Amino acid sequence: MRLVRLAVASVNATVGATRSNVDRAVRVAKAAAADGATIVALPEQCIGGYSPEDLAQWRGFVDAQMVSLHRFAKETADLPSALVIGVTAARGAHLYNCAALVYRGKVHGLVPKEKLPTYNVFYEARVFARGAVGMVDEIDGIPFGDVVFDLDFGTIGLEVCEDVWSPDGPMRRRSYAGAEIVVNVSASPFRLGITATRREMLATRAGDNQCTVLYANLVGANDGLIFDGGGTVAQNGRLLLEAPRFREGFWAVTVDLDRTRRLRTENTTWRTDQEVFSAASPPVRHVKVDGATVGRAALTYPSPPGASFFLPSGGAPRSPRAEFCEELLDALALGIGDYFEKIGAFKTIGVALSGGRDSLLCLILARRYVDTRFASLDDAGRAAKATEMLRAFFMPTRYSSPETHAAAEAAAEELSVPFVVSSVDDAFQRELVHIEAMLQPGEKLTPMSRQNVQARIRAERMWTWSNSAAGLFLQTSNMSEKAVGYTTIGGDMEGALSVIANVPKTVVNYLLDYLLETTRSEGIRLTLKKPASAELADDMEDEKDLMPFPVLDACFALYAGEKMSEEEVRLALGAMFPTEDAKKLDAWVTKFGRLFTQSIYKWVQAPLSLHVGNLDLDRERALQLPVVQRSEWQKKG
User: Fold this and answer.
1) How do beta strands 225-228 and 219-222 pair?
2) What are the strands of the beta sheet with 181-186, ordered from one edge?
């Protein structure tokens, strides 16, 4: 047996906080080394934080990372573990997103990322240069480029995040060059469904390359990007370790490298491919790392679950519904909490609690953040923290119903959140008088104007509260309504952080249904009892104004996600909703197309939003659509 202990570390790094990030990295590295780790993998850009975006163009920021990398090496010099950590490195005019190997106080090598994503939320090629096959150089005497490292226990290769997502990434040639362990340092953002995809992909890469993959992922949130951590170890296609998600810390597993070597010997296809590849490709440089790593005599053979090689592991699987809801709730709560804490400008968190679904979910998420942040306290202690940190404001007009008032008050009481009622009806009436005085002959107040005035007065009050109480004002509109402009500029589109702007209304309802079942909350029950309504006019209901939300969300997914034309959307909806009247579906598709295109100018002005899916309404990061456009291309002829 050739046993090694592999540790994955999830570190909550903040962009630009080079000193604090290294302090966190040192703490977790020392803890993992004390556990006997042979290798400790820390996340991508752990020193500088991810994503640095254009901050990387400040050379002082890049230089500070190298200074901090050497401090990391110095402060871990007494550790017998090999440490891999993410850092930005400069080479001439180029910047590289690198994995650095640190051991016994020295930086032994820098390996640049080769696959630079520029899709979805990523813009790495804007600031970073790519690593390349056969690239070998030095940066300040440190080996740099396409290299592998020979240590006393075996050969390891390093790579960065996206490199592992491509089947044609550097893992193949480094495995063919002798690397039995490939360490991937990542800052892979959370997306719904990513867990299973990531798990399958990593196991596949480990199987394809007959190697052991050690994958570490960033945890925490920076701006709208949420990182879920959850490192993984997979050996030759078999998953050995999945670390808990949304938590900072380290997790380790013992691996027998003789198994990897044996399977390579047995697999004639892998050996043949290796011979062909090596004969036609430039050799990968080997960097020898001298010194004995942590002693491994105390390690024991990794026993399979239940001490059986032939039976499945015990334990009932988690329901898909619970897994979906809990991970989304955890991700959004983490996004709120890290935004609140890392900016350092806020003391409280406030929600304009209308008695409707969206604002209720946002308040629940804020309370979930408090409960997670102060998990060491008992129920009473966490409730006291919620009372100290959270605020809920009910701002009714004549159109607000007693039912929504009761729902909002009940929810705030259950969540231990101070509840303030502040009517805006008088201000609404005064504002109408002033607006009418501004109109010329023939001009008059429209019903839409009357609705928007109410929303804008509420937003103005929330901002004034925010200024006075150092409050983080949470914006509460959902993705479905944002997509079709069912929002008010200067009104319910206002806030410092848009919490559920990338959560469709059908998902909002699904989460609240789940929370009602699991918590029996009276506030949720009262909120769901009444049809969704902005309550800005008499007898107002959101789905009557728009269309059924399942249809709206399907239109959005097909048009914005699948990039279908309106005609294709009509055909797809007919198959999805066979019981709906065809003329109604046709009218809804036409309405959606018109509202979506005419509302882009609105949603590009929305606050920074949390990203939780592959389809997001964010012009800067995800869906880059021109504000000024026409839909003439939809028409034939």
Assistant:
1) antiparallel
2) 238-242, 232-235, 212-217, 181-186, 154-160, 147-151, 285-288
The conformational region for residue 295 under phi > 0 = left, psi -120 to 50 = alpha, else beta, is beta
Nearest to 555 by CA among 543, 567, 545, 541: 567
Helices (H), 243-319: 257-266, 268-280
Location of structure tokens 């009517």: 423
Give, as one character, the DSSP assignment of residue 229. Answer: B
**Tens digit of pLDDT for each residue in 551-569?**
999 999 999 999 999 999 9
Q: Which domains does the chain have, with CATH numbers?
A: 3-291 (3.60.110.10), 321-546+599-634 (3.40.50.620)
pLDDT at 205 exceeding the cut of 80: yes
Whether the predicted model's global pTM rises above the 0.70 cut: yes
**Tokens 């231990």 identify what position?**
416
Quick check: helix, strand or coil at residue 202?
helix
Selection from 407, 412, 423 nearest residue 457 by Cα:
423
Q: Per-residue pLDDT averaged across 536-559, rounded?
A: 95
pLDDT recorded at residue 490: 94
Q: What is the mean pLDDT of the chain?
A: 94
Give which of 323, 322, 342, 344 is closest to 334, Cα–Cα: 342
d(CA 164, CA 199): 12
In one-letter notation, the amino acid at residue 153 is F
Say whether pLDDT at 635 is over 70.
Answer: yes
What are residue 366's phi and psi, to 5 degrees? -65, -40
How confident is residue 637, by pLDDT bands cut at 50, 70 and 90? low
Determine the 3-state secondary structure of 454 from DSSP.
helix
Instruction: Count other C-beta atoms under 10 Å from residue 236's C-beta.
Output: 22
* 631: pLDDT strictly greater than 80: no
Asked if pLDDT for residue 545 goes beyond 80, the answer is yes
Name, in order, each residue with C-beta under 8 angstroms of 546's C-beta and a sequence gap of 6 or more.
481, 484, 486, 552, 591
**Would you say 387 and 414 are in contact if contact means Cβ atoms under 8 Å apart?**
no
313 CB-side CA count, 13 A:
8
The CA-atom distances, in angstroms, between 396 and each of 203, 379, 402, 459 are 54, 32, 10, 13
Which pLDDT band holds residue 575 (cuts at 50, 70, 90)?
very high
Q: What is the pLDDT of residue 32?
A: 98
**How many angstroms separate the CA atoms of 534 and 487, rounded?**
10
- Cβ neighbours of residue 157 under 8 Å, at least 6 residues apart? 111, 148, 149, 170, 171, 174, 175, 177, 179, 181, 182, 183
Cα separation, 335 vs 539, whole angstroms: 35
CA distance 557 to 545: 20
Tens digit of each residue's pLDDT (9 = 90 or more) over 304-356: 877 888 887 767 778 999 999 999 999 999 999 999 999 999 999 999 999 99
Cα 173 to Cα 361: distance, rounded to the nearest angstrom: 48
Residue linked to tokens 């988690």: 318
Which one, of 410, 261, 100, 363, lies nearest residue 113 by Cα? 100
- Tell me what pLDDT residue 313 has: 73
Q: CB burial class (10 A; 0-12, 13-18, 19+) of residue 254?
A: buried
Give dist(CA 315, CA 24) in Å, integer.
34
pLDDT at 354: 95
Dihedral angle sign, alpha carbons of residues 326, 305, 241, 78:
positive
Q: Which residue has the tokens 């640049």?
A: 112
